[in-house]
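Fold it.
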Amino acid sequence: MKSFRDFRVLFVRNLKGSLRNPVWLFIGMFQPVLYLLLFAPLLKGLGNVPGFPPGGAYTVFTPGLLVMLALFTTAFAGFGLVDHIRNGFVERLLVTPASRFSILLAYLSRDVAVLLVQSVIAVILGVVMMRPAVPGGR
């Protein structure tokens, strides 16, 4: 139970730290939107190719965007931790009674929360943009 409390405190602290810098938050949330708005329309011509799945380019591009988000978000998840290590914050955390597992899980969970929000935004926008291309849709 103490580990969960430590995790919750550190997770909220990490999340508040992310929210304090709105520029990176905006860039991180707006990136999937830009990809869907700028690059997906370039693939509309592929919808007429034989063997292409029904529903247009968005049915292929949106899942591909989700895979890309998952790969890049997890690949760069450690950079925030590296910054905290360089600043000496992790050394100060390690002398507290918080478990090391809770410390690591809090950093990881913040990155997962950002990934989930990005994914939800991408899926909602992909469904909205795909709506006219779906047969029988409006």
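The first helix runs from residue 2 to 19.
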